[in-house]
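Progress against Task 2.4 (sequence-to-structure conversion) is shown through the following example record, which the project officer requested during the mid-term review.
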Amino acid sequence: MNHIQGAWNTLSGSETAQAASAMVEDDSTAFKGLGLTKTQRLYGFGICLVAGFALSLIGAIFFTFGQIALFATLYTLGVVISLVGTGFLIGFTRQLKMAWDPVRRYAAGVFLLCIALVFVFAFAVEIDVLVIVFAVLTFLSYAWYSLSFIPYARDLMIKLSPF
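Structure tokens generated for the chain above:
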């Protein structure tokens, strides 16, 4: 009977909901010093997400005017601010520790490497095409990293992928 209940929980998504809820609720000690409520943490996440998207969008606008260095700076800053927003959900220290878990290690490493390479090709080498390539790879690695926090999201993306 336990096996049937476990299968039902998996199919109904209740385990997923419990896991997601635990990620938001479990790390309350991380926010004790800041005195943030759950609602304030969700606002922090939302504000960072919107601000990060806005900076990335403004960077893309500057790119259309040929301002590659400004694009690289604003775009990367936007992606990093969006990532910081998730720290409001699970705690900043916990996020840093979880980034190097085996399931996210490569995505986190590629993300940091791509950020560095965006700046290298924007400011030191000045090859515009490679700035764009590594900006796209930064976004893709950020998305893959973020999907690792959602149960079965990576598997779904692989199944939906045409490659």
